[in-house]
Amino acid sequence: MSFNIAIDGPAGAGKSTIARSLARSLGFIYVDTGAMYRAMAYYFLKNRIDPENKSGIEDACADVDITITYENGEQQVLLNGENITSQLRKESVGNMASVTSALPAVRIKLTQLQKKLAASTDVVMDGRDIGTAVLPDAQMKIYLTAGTAVRAKRRYEELKAQGIDKSLESIEKDIRNRDYRDMHRDISPLCQAEDAVLVDTSDMDIETVLNTIRRIYEEKKRS
């Protein structure tokens, strides 16, 4: 039987960084569900599909194939055979993903793919509703969070390193707006699963967070 680890939390909490490192250290497969939703959002943006156009969204979902592969140990996201990994961290893509991830057609398609993978493989999967909707029976659930100002500063430094100039104030505003949308959407809103362990990373470095979660994993395996 496969062992599933679900990591949920708001934007900028460090889910992807932690989940990727945790999977590598445990020998699990890392499934970045956020990247899958961003890939779908990128497709909508590229093809100028308005998220309010429900029939257009449904038709597009039928035409989209999203595959996650690994190259030299790094995750690559393929959209209909095209590697779009470098496009996924754009703010426009992230904002579109926050809106369209709540749409039933989008969630149904991607959730089916995610469940199928987790049923046969040891995975670390991160997102907004993994422990509550995608993998409700996961043997281990983590809710990773951090203060809004901390998350905004992390995103600011990330964009700055990429040569992208955006004010800290506008980034924090975007994060607050995304938090509100994610937590108040009708379908699978962001929330902490009842059996998830809360880990606040505001005052932790990456190694401390990883050690904390690995200890939780070892306790789960022993129990």
- Please compute the radius of gyration using only Cα atoms: 17 Å
What's the number of extended β-strand segments? 8
Q: Structural class of the helix and strand makeup?
A: alpha/beta
CATH H-level superfamily title? P-loop containing nucleotide triphosphate hydrolases
Give the helix proportion (percent range).
40-55%
Instruction: Count up the helices.
Output: 9
Categorize the overall geometry.
Answer: globular
CATH topology title? Rossmann fold
- Quote the distance from N terminus to C terminus: 16 Å
Q: Any guess at the CATH architecture?
A: 3-Layer(aba) Sandwich
Count of the domains? 1
Largest sheet: 5 strands, parallel
Q: What would the average pLDDT be, to the nearest integer?
A: 91
- pLDDT below 50 for ≥5 consecutive residues: which ranges? none
Brief characterization of the structure:
The chain is 52% helix and 17% strand. With 223 residues, it is of the alpha/beta class.
What does this structure look like?
The model has no long low-confidence stretch (mean pLDDT 91). It is globular and about 50 Å long. Helix 1 crosses helix 9, helix 2 crosses helix 4 and helix 7 crosses helix 8. A hairpin with a 2-residue loop joins strand 3 and strand 4. The strands form 2 sheets. The chain has a 5-stranded parallel β-sheet with strand order 2-6-1-7-8, with helices on both faces. It has 223 residues and is α/β, with parallel strands linked by helices. It has one domain: P-loop containing nucleotide triphosphate hydrolases (Rossmann fold, 3-Layer(aba) Sandwich).
